[in-house]
Amino acid sequence: MLQTLGLLLGCQLLGEITVRGFGLALPGPVLGLTLLVLILGAIPTLAERLRPTTTVILANLSFLFVPAGVGVIGNFEVLSEDGVALLAILTLSTVLSMLAAVGTFLGVRHVTERWAP
């Protein structure tokens, strides 16, 4: 499990270092995830070694949202003053995120269908 976490966090760290070092307009974790995908593409058997750890992380993902909930309650006055604007922004960003996810899925599907025999 430690090796898997080391690989996951190492990829994220490399992404952060690269983005900050070259001043790229890209989030470091996104570049780190791209690096991880490239590594998994180069070493397909590594995915099975990562599966147990990533399954545990995903199963407990809801715990990562507890600090965000505490932050919302801690800043309740901001929520009560700007609630309508925040709701509009959250709705718009959710829709845009979903569209980006669909676009990414369609793009990956298109690329993988071209590579399929």
Can you describe this structure?
The protein is an all-alpha fold and 117 residues long. It folds into two domains: 1-59, no CATH class; 64-117. Helix content is 84%, strand content 0%. It is extended. The mean pLDDT is 89.
Largest sheet: none
Low-confidence stretches: none
Mean pLDDT: 89
Number of helices: 6
Question: Nutshell version of this structure?
Answer:
The protein is mainly α and 117 residues long. The chain has helices at residues 2-22, 28-42, 46-59, 66-74, 76-81, 83-115.
Q: Which characteristics define this entry?
A:
0% strand, mainly alpha, 6 helices, 117 residues
Topology:
Layout (H helix, E strand, L loop, with lengths): L1 H21 L5 H15 L3 H14 L6 H9 L1 H6 L1 H33 L2
